[in-house]
Amino acid sequence: MNDNKKLTFENKQLRNVGVQTPGPPAFPNVQKFTPKERSAASEAQSRAAKEANKSKAWMNSRFCAARPEFETVISRKFGMIPGPSERLKTNAKVHVALSACLNGEAVRHNAGHCFAPFIVDDMGEFLSFESVCPEVEGLGLGTPRETIRLVNSSGDLEDWGQTTLVGTKSCNNYTSMMANYTASRLHDLDKAGINGYILKALSPSCGLRGIPVYPSVDTRGRGSGKAQSGMFAKALMELWPELPVEDEGRLADVSLRHSFYTRVEAHRRWRCMLEKRTNARNKKQPYIPLHTFHKNHLLLADSHSATSVKLLEDLVKEASSHRNIDNIVENDILEKEDDIYRRYYNTFFNALKRTGGRASTARCLRYCLSVLEGKDDKKEVAPDNESETAAEGEKRRERDLDNGSMLGMFLEYDDGDEILKETECVDKTEPNINYIAMHDKNKGIETHNSEIPFIQRFCVIDPEDALEISESIKDYYNALVPLSMPLSCFKRQIKRLKLEQKKYLTTGEQLNCDMGNHPGSRALDILDNQAFLEPHQCKRVLSTIRQNKFGQTFEASHVFTCL
Ligand code: SF4
Q: Of 30, 304, 359, 368, which shows the fewest CB atoms inside 10 Å?
């Protein structure tokens, strides 16, 4: 008997006769983690595991093997092609792909269709559609036909690399055919200039999520595997992750539809910007429209994901270093520029995928108000505490909203889209201060470091109007009014400023004297064309859906308060 056992045995005997014995040794001191630290660690762990599984499944999949050129993101060109220019005209409808059966085409396995009037008729006022049916076009199946299902007989039902698309009667394996079709069709769709994709829900090919995987082709019931995406939809999202994609079930939700409209509209503007860039390249001009795009979409990105704004700004700064006209013809510079655009595209559209919360949207609205009031020089204190809880974040944002803390990260641009510098606070108590607002355009970007330009800020809004906007932002933040309320207030102010500016310039011309810039020029420069204030051109977004696919009618008031 070893010493420990002997000691325990003796202690037991002593206790049996009523003698008090020493208890077990104290538990050694270990480092205790707070619940916050524990949850952060477990979240990071599960995120890493998910990422590893995802990439492993993808690398093992037949889609990846069939198209090795997509293995590196550098070679992927989706979304980097301008698209047919007639569709990029300002008032043209936004072109999106749509599952053919939703468009009323009889391509389903039972030779029927699932026409979705709320998409084709209502959303069709703003969107134009390109029908796609992977089963008929890609697999060459006729109508009516056998049904197909996702089968994974490897034992690990979550391993997408082993999931196959199989006919339920013939047991034909359609996976490789679908892989070949998907890659070539996506290229065609990119060339056709699509800006989004509306998929048919619950289909083994087109379904976005919730598609059962079966362990064998003849398994009865609803499938015991973990629900996944349809095979075409999965490949679409893997190969073109930035593309706005929704299914008809999710689009019945008004806030998701609003987000979809916003993303497809942003994608259309992205393609317009690429068109301008291509034209400039052809004429060998050093024009990089990324700056204009960034300036007009900065608040939109910030309202969805504040963390991505810094990345986007870094990319814009990087792009500005390739402005030398002599360098433009050099292929390596073009490739570098392509790479910057691709990274910007990826970061920006992944940021828009995140739902813009009320707090971040209210913060951006508040910034717009501060520009009109000439007070946009206050900096927001960024949270350096990464583990801030949601409740703490909410409190901080509410406090910021009350204190009027602003974004403070807007970069100043001149007419040639060159970044000047982040502007500094202007002391408005000095009435005759001589502001430096002029900038020599002939100088290179690096010469801007020598002087910090001061930009004069004017209050160009009535106190009553400012109060009204401020109240409407608070009401929006407290979910009492929809977003359209503060947005319409801003649009009114911008319209007023434009009229005033026009009158000001006309007066200058009549008097034949240089009156300088109108006081509202700076506010107009920042707020006009700001995608955040007019996220999409669709005027009927609040009233488009009358019925969802189950025949459920939405009350106007319900739709109104959703956004
Ligand atoms: S769900 Fe997709 S594959 Fe199936 S019929 Fe509709 S468009 Fe074709």
A: 30
- 114-158 residue pLDDT tens: 888 888 888 888 889 999 999 998 888 888 899 999 988 877 777
Given the CA of residue 135, which atom of ligand 1 is nearest to it?
A: 3
Residues 484 and 350 occupy one common structural domain: yes
pLDDT band at 238 (very low <50, low <70, confident <90, very high): confident
The residue out of 252, 270, 287 marking a domain boundary is 252
Please report which confidence band the pLDDT of residue 297 belongs to, taking 50, 70 and 90 as the band edges. Answer: very high
DSSP, residue by residue, 71-116: SSGGG--TT-S---GGGGSTTSPEEEEEEGGGGT-S-STTS-----
**Whose CA is closest to atom 8 on ligand 1?**
133
pLDDT tier at 253 (50, 70, 90 boundaries)? confident
The number of domains in the chain is 2
Report pLDDT for 560: 41
Ligand 1 neighbour 305 (Cβ under 6 A): no
- Over residues 159-195, the pLDDT tens digits come to 777 888 999 989 999 988 888 888 888 888 998 889 9
CA 111 to ligand 1 centroid distance, Å: 11
62 lines ligand 1 (CB under 6 A): no
**Terminal-residue alpha carbon distance, the chain:** 75
Tokens matching residue 333: 């510079």
Backbone angles phi, psi at 406, to 5 degrees: -110, 180
| pLDDT 10s digits, 500-511 | 999 998 888 888
Query: Which atom of ligand 1 approaches the CA of 136 most closely?
Result: 8
Which of 252, 279, 311 is the last residue in one of the domains? Answer: 252
Please name which of 148, 105, 116, 149 lies closest in space to residue 249, comparing C-alpha atoms. 116
Q: Is the CB of 145 under 6 A from ligand 1?
A: no
Same domain, 203 and 263: no
- Closest by Cα among 173, 172, 94, 105 to 133: 105
Phi, then psi, of 201 in degrees rounded to 5 = -70, 155
Helix 358-373 crosses helix 463-477 at what angle (to 10 degrees)?
170
State which ligand 1 atom lies nearest to the alpha carbon of 102: 6
10 Å CB burial of residue 124 (0-12, 13-18, 19+) is: middle
Helix (H, G, I), strand (E, B) or coil at 226: coil
Query: Which residues, in sequence order, are bridge partners of residue 150?
Result: 165, 213
Same domain as 380, residue 282:
yes
- Show the domain range for 272: 257-384+429-542
Q: What is the pLDDT of residue 183?
A: 82
pLDDT of residue 355: 80
User: What's the gap in Å between 456 CA and the centre of ligand 1?
Assistant: 58
Q: Nearest residue CA, atom 4 of ligand 1?
A: 108
pLDDT of 386 strictly over 90: no
Asked if the structure places residue 8 within a domain, the reply is no
How far does residue 230's CA lie from ligand 1's centre (Å)?
A: 10
